[in-house]
Write a structure and sequence with these properties.
The chain is α+β, with helices and mostly antiparallel strands and 308 residues long. It folds into four domains: 76 residues, Arc Repressor Mutant, subunit A (Orthogonal Bundle); 39 residues; 72 residues, SH3 type barrels; 74 residues, no CATH class. The protein has ten helices and eleven strands. The strands form three sheets. It has a five-stranded antiparallel sheet with strand order 7-6-5-4-8, with helices on one face. A three-stranded antiparallel sheet has the order 1-3-2. A three-stranded antiparallel sheet has the order 10-9-11. β2 and β3 form a beta hairpin. The longest helix has 19 residues. The termini are far apart. This is Proteasome accessory factor C. Keywords: Proteasome.
Length: 308
C-alpha cells in the first residue's frame, strides 16, 4: 500500500472501510508501531488513535470485556490478542441479516457505476445473506446523498474550480441556484457539509450535501475582498397558546406553558413565518408587526379557499 501524506477521512463509509481493514492487518502485523500503522492507512496519528479507540468498543454479541476486542496501543505499538476468536465463523440473527443487507445496499449506492466489479461482489454477498436469513430480495435502502453530487464536489475541491449548485434551503423552503467555490467537506452531528465561498451571498457558507440537488461545473472569478453583505437578525416575540414538543424543539425553548411569551431571532423572515404556520395554532406571533400582518393575509387566503 502506497504511503502518501496523512489525511483524515470525513466520509463515514471511508472510516468504516478502514476500521474493517484494521483488524486483519493488525493481526498479521502484531507489534507494529502506531506511527507506521497510521502511514500505511494514510491518516494522521491522532486519527489512528481515534480509530483504535473505536475498535476497543467493538466485538461479539454480549459486548462484555470477554467479547470486546483486546487491543493494546498505549505503548506506541499496536497488538490485538483475540483476533483468532473474532475470526471464527458465527451464525447471524434475522435482525443482523437485515442490517447487513441494508448496509450493503447503501454502500452499493455510494459506489461509482463504473466499478462493476465491486457492485457485482456486493450484490452477490447481499443475495447470500438474504437467503441465509430468509429475507426478500426487494429489501433495499439508499443514501440521501447523490453520488453524482459528491463526485462533482470532490473534483471541484481537487481542481479549485467552481460549481453551480441547486440547493434546497430549509429557511426559505425553496430550491435556489448558486455559484460557489468549494473549499472542503466537513462533518458535523452526523451530516456532511460543503464549506464554500458563495458568490450569491458574497460570503463563506456551509451547505448540507444531502440538500444539494445538482452540481455542475461553472467558471468563477477570485472571491471579492470587499466586506460581505450579511443580513441583520430579525427579533421576534411569540406567545405560547398550547405547549407542544414541536414548538419547544423548533424554537429551542424548554419549560413552556400556556401563556408563556418568549423572544428569539432569525436571519430569515421566511423561516419565522413558516415556523409560526407550522405550529398549527400552538403559538401566536406578537411581533414584528409586518410579519404578523403577512401571516394574517396568508391565513385569510387559506380560509377563503375552504369557504369556496
Amino acid at each position: 500500500m502506497a504511503k502518501n501524506a496523512p489525511k483524515n477521512a470525513v466520509s463515514p463509509l471511508e472510516r468504516t472501510s478502514r476500521l474493517l481493514d484494521l483488524v486483519p492487518y493488525i493481526n498479521t502485523h502484531q507489534g507494529i508501531s502506531l506511527v507506521d500503522l497510521a502511514e500505511v492507512f494514510e491518516v494522521s496519528t491522532n486519527q489512528m488513535i481515534s480509530d483504535l479507540t473505536t475498535l476497543w468498543m467493538c466485538g461479539l454479541p454480549g459486548y462484555t470485556p470477554l467479547e470486546l476486542m483486546d487491543l493494546d496501543f498505549e505503548s506506541g505499538y499496536v497488538t490485538i490478542r483475540n483476533a483468532p476468536t473474532l475470526a471464527k465463523p458465527r451464525s447471524i440473527t434475522h435482525e443482523e441479516g437485515v442490517a447487513l443487507v441494508l448496509g450493503l445496499d447503501v454502500l452499493r449506492s455510494a459506489i461509482s457505476t463504473e466499478r462493476t466489479d465491486l457492485i457485482e461482489a456486493i450484490s452477490s454477498l447481499s443475495q447470500r445473506i438474504a437467503r441465509l436469513v430468509n429475507l426478500p430480495l426487494a429489501l433495499s435502502a439508499s443514501s440521501d446523498i447523490s453520488h453524482e453530487v459528491t463526485t462533482s464536489v470532490k473534483e471541484a475541491i481537487a481542481h479549485r474550480s467552481g460549481l453551480q449548485i441547486s440547493y434546497h434551503s430549509l429557511y426559505k423552503d425553496e430550491v435556489s441556484s448558486r455559484v460557489v467555490l468549494p473549499l472542503e467537506i466537513l462533518e458535523s452531528q452526523g451530516y456532511l457539509y460543503l464549506h464554500a465561498y458563495c458568490f450569491t451571498a458574497l460570503d463563506f457558507r456551509h451547505f448540507r450535501i444531502d440538500r444539494i440537488k445538482a452540481a455542475n461545473s461553472a467558471e468563477v472569478k477570485k472571491p471579492s475582498t470587499a466586506p460581505p453583505v450579511n443580513p441583520e437578525k430579525i427579533d421576534f416575540s411569540v406567545k405560547v397558546l398550547r405547549p407542544t414538543r414541536d414548538v419547544a424543539e423548533r424554537f429551542q425553548e424548554s419549560n413552556l406553558e400556556a401563556g408563556t411569551v418568549f423572544e428569539s431571532s432569525s436571519f430569515s423572515q421566511h423561516w419565522i413565518a413558516r415556523s409560526v404556520l407550522a405550529s398549527g395554532g400552538a403559538i401566536e406571533l406578537l411581533a414584528p408587526a409586518e410579519i404578523r400582518s403577512e401571516l394574517a393575509k396568508r391565513a385569510k387566503v387559506i380560509l377563503n379557499r375552504y369557504e369556496g
